[in-house]
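thread from #wetlab-drylab

HS: before we spend reagent money on co-crystallization trials with heme C, can we at least see a predicted complex? here's what I'd submit
DV: go for it
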Amino acid sequence: MKTNRLIVLMMLAGLAVASEPAKQAVPAHRGKQIFDQWCGICHAASPRMPGTASLAAKYGGSLPAALEERTDMPPAFIEHFVRKGVLIMPAFRKTEITDADLELLVDYLKAKDQ
Ligand code: HEC
């Protein structure tokens, strides 16, 4: 009986070790995945998206309507809207988008500045 338990424990330990690299392999475009999961439904590059349509009306073409095409947004600006929301845009809780994920999201939206 004890031997069986030991074998099971060793197998579990093996599994834990085997799955470790997969957990660490965060894709470079994790920010894009977060954007697609939480923001794309309103901010994807299509005039039919409510966020994109709203920003097209707000800026009247002086800035791109699609967030992924913007290069002018400081991190604090993005963070403010994500945490507070605006109009029909909900405020996102830390249980939905963690601070670490928000940082990746900001990095993704800022990456196009360079
Ligand atoms: C339910 C639809 C919806 C979702 C989901 C949504 N937004 Fe929005 N977002 C809007 C609308 C509508 C506005 C307001 C546009 C306006 O002021 O006319 C907006 C505004 C913004 C602004 C301000 C832009 C500006 O120049 O005024 C930012 C930044 C922003 N959203 C980022 C995000 C991010 C990042 C996500 C994902 C975490 C997200 N939004 C998810 C609908 C949405």
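DV: Residues 38-39, 41-43, 50-51, 54-55, 58, 67, 73, 78, 81-82, 86-89, 92, 97, 105 surround heme C (CB under 6 Å).
HS: ok that's useful, forwarding to the group
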